[in-house]
Design a protein that fits this description.
The protein is of the alpha+beta class. It folds into 5 domains: about 200 residues, Heat Shock Protein 90; about 160 residues, 2-Layer Sandwich (Ribosomal Protein S5, domain 2); about 140 residues, 3-Layer(aba) Sandwich (Rossmann fold); about 60 residues, 2-Layer Sandwich (Dna Ligase, domain 1); about 35 residues, no CATH class. Helices cover about 35% and strands about 20% of the residues.
Length: about 650
């Protein structure tokens, strides 16, 4: 008998209002982890910054309240509260309707970071409550919502007035919904970094931060008159600088472009892109335009002054940007981003505008600053020499070590050569490595055992890094090169595995090994992280075996506590896994290798500057800042208790 097909007209669901946001929050804020949680603050702050860009706001305040909520206040014009043609006050429409706002026409905002029009309504939908006070037209108007739905009655169709005020502005207080978010405690460090970043991008704007949690008020004030130049100086505060910060700006096709960059005595580049104050983690057309034009300008100079001879090939873009720290900020009247979280700018005209500014302004600067020009070209020369010399080293290494090698505990490769389907597990120890090799699906799963803790690359010189056997093996296995040392020729398109999975024991040593590996990837293969290829396996810590019924894997102490609370009257045996090597191959497959049942955590970079600073603090040689950081952020740590 054929199975009944229940797909009919009754199968079609229509999610009314903001219910779609609550059902699929990741589509709107990226994730329901702390990164997504903090994103709620940024959505409200970005709306306030748009008021600044429109010329009506010069101060924004963010308060992390004692009760876990957040308050964002600005002294802009205040959200309109008059009756909209839809029959409700305009403010209520903004907070309850997707794609409702003042940013779709050309009158209220010439540039805006929130052109999708979903920021305020998404925050409302994902909050247990959201409270709004609007100071406008001499009155203080009040509105309140609970999980996206209005929670107070209108007065004759209008918002209730709760006071009088001469000034204008909007204050939003919201409490993230614990039913939505895995974590409901905001990260003060990440929020402060974002506010400080916003102050650099807007020299006329003051950003105030207050943290009222933990029994004391902690305040910070950010106001950066030097703008992008100050930002670049801050990024390079611990580096040996070869030039002063170089600043240029211009406008083309209605797009305002600001660029600041500086060279330091290091062989890597650090380029950050922003559009309408939004950090574009994956770059975009504005960065492409800058890089292409700057490469052309500097190669022309190199030939003009004789650094490159007629027979010499041009410097590559990576050669020329070696040692560069840059911030590119564009203000665009109609930006197009990839995704609501705006990680990549997609406007072709932004590329043209950035290229035009560089082509016109860079010669003006370098014609008057010959020493800076020589420093840039000298850095490019050194990078090119390293690239050419180490291309030979890499080719020699690859010719000696085919990536199917498997002797003495090295790579046990998979059969498939389809990178989109393949994954590689980095496993510590012979015991765990042996179990993993037995348990895996050798069609598409490769196992790379490493012995002990790899080198801490944050403390080591490049020659020591490249001499490390475990690191060389990983470079060879991945197939995409190394962003420093191996010729600055990292090529993500040559990656042999879609997923690189760190599989370490669920203990302190395992966490340390994972941290060392992540430091290596972040500093020298960052695209592995930014392109979403790095994962951490989440092996269970326990297995409970009840007297009746099937056993159950538990992944941390919290899960064990919850299990005990649910089964207070039942007896069960408890098995604790001190290491992956204690699991037999079947258990390892079921818990850690099988795509259908395993748990993986993908590694992401939220705040580029903060991530770099924290890596330097925690993995560097200076002990006092590390100790201070640990004390300050102990409350934000996720611990097993």
């Amino acid at each position: 008998m054929a199975k009944k097909d229940n797909y009919d007209e009754n199968s079609i669901q229509v999610l009314e209002g903001l219910e779609a946001v609550r059902r699929r929050p990741g589509m709107y804020i990226g994730s329901t982890s702390r990164k997504g949680l903090n994103h709620l603050i940024y959505e409200i702050v970005d709306n306030a910054v748009d008021e600044h860009l429109a010329g009506y706001c010069d101060r924004i305040e963010v308060i992390l309240e004692k009760d876990g909520s957040c308050t964002v206040s600005d002294n802009g014009r205040g959200i309109p509260v008059g009756m909209h043609e839809k029959g409700v006050p305009a403010e209520r429409l903004v907070y309850t309707t997707l794609h409702a706002g003042g940013k779709f026409g050309n009158d209220a905002y010439k540039t805006s970071g929130g052109l999708h029009g979903v920021g305020s309504s998404v925050v409302n939908a994902l909050s247990a409550y959201l409270d709004v006070l609007v100071k406008r037209d001499g009155a203080i108007h009040h509105d309140r919502f609970r999980r996206g739905r209005p929670d107070i009655d209108l007065v004759n169709g209008f918002l209730p007035i709760v006071g009088r005020a001469k000034e204008t502005g909007t204050t939003v207080n919201f409490l993230p919904d614990p039913d939505i978010f895995e974590i409901t405690r905001f990260s003060a460090a990440e929020v402060k970094s974002r506010l400080h970043e916003t102050a650099y991008l807007n020299p006329g704007l003051t950003m105030a931060f207050t943290d009222k949690r933990d029994g004391e008020e902690k305040k910070e004030l950010y106001h950066e008159e030097d703008g992008l130049v100050g930002y670049v100086r801050e990024l390079n505060k611990n580096a040996e600088c070869l030039t002063e910060p170089i600043y240029m700006r211009g406008r083309d096709e209605g797009i305002q472009v600001e660029i600041a960059f500086q060279y330091v005595n290091e062989f890597h580049e650090n380029i950050l892109g922003y559009c309408n104050n939004i950090y574009n983690a994956d770059g975009g057309t504005h960065l492409t335009g800058f890089k292409t034009a700057f490469t052309t300008v500097m190669n022309n100079y190199a030939r003009e002054i004789g650094v490159l001879k007629e027979k010499d090939a041009n410097f590559t873009g990576a050669d020329i940007r070696s040692g560069m720290t840059a911030v590119i900020s564009v203000k665009h009247p109609d930006p197009r981003f990839e995704g609501q979280t705006k990680t990549k700018l997609d406007n072709p005209d932004a590329s043209r505008a950035a290229a035009k500014v560089v082509t016109e302004e860079a010669p003006h600067y370098f014609d008057r600053n010959i020493e800076a020009l020589k420093a840039v070209l000298s850095s490019a020369e050194k990078s090119a020499r390293i690239r050419k010399a180490e291309e030979k080293t890499k080719n020699s290494l690859l010719s000696r070590q085919k990536y199917s090698f498997d002797t003495n505990g090295k790579l046990a490769n998979c059969i498939s050569r389809d990178a989109s389907k393949c994954e590689i597990f980095i496993v510590e120890g012979d015991s765990a490595g042996g179990s993993a090799k037995t348990a895996r699906d050798r069609n598409y799963q490769a196992i790379l055992p490493i012995r002990g803790k790899i080198l801490n690359v944050e403390k080591a010189s490049i020659d020591k890094i490249l001499a490390n056997a475990e690191i060389k093996t990983m470079i060879t296995s991945f197939g995409c090169g190394f962003s420093e040392g191996y010729g600055n020729d990292f090529d993500i398109s040559k990656l042999r595995y879609d997923k690189i999975i760190i599989m370490a024991d669920a203990d302190v040593d395992g966490a340390h090994i994972g941290t060392l590996l992540l430091t290596l990837f972040y500093r020298y293969m960052p695209e592995l992280i930014t392109e979403g290829h790095i994962y951490v396996a989440m092996p269970p810590l326990y297995k409970v075996i009840p007297q009746k019924g099937e056993g159950e894997y538990l992944y941390d102490d919290r899960a064990l506590e919850r299990y005990r609370n649910r089964h207070k009257r039942e007896k069960f045996a408890l098995q604790r896994y001190k290491g992956l090597g204690e699991m037999d191959p079947d258990q390892l497959w079921e818990t850690t290798l099988d795509p259908k049942t395993r748990r993986l955590r993908r590694i992401e970079i939220g705040d580029a500057k903060l991530s770099s600073d924290i890596t330097e603090i925690l993995m560097g040689t200076d002990v006092p800042p590390r100790r201070d950081f640990i004390y300050e952020h102990a409350r934000d740590a996720e611990l097993d208790v």
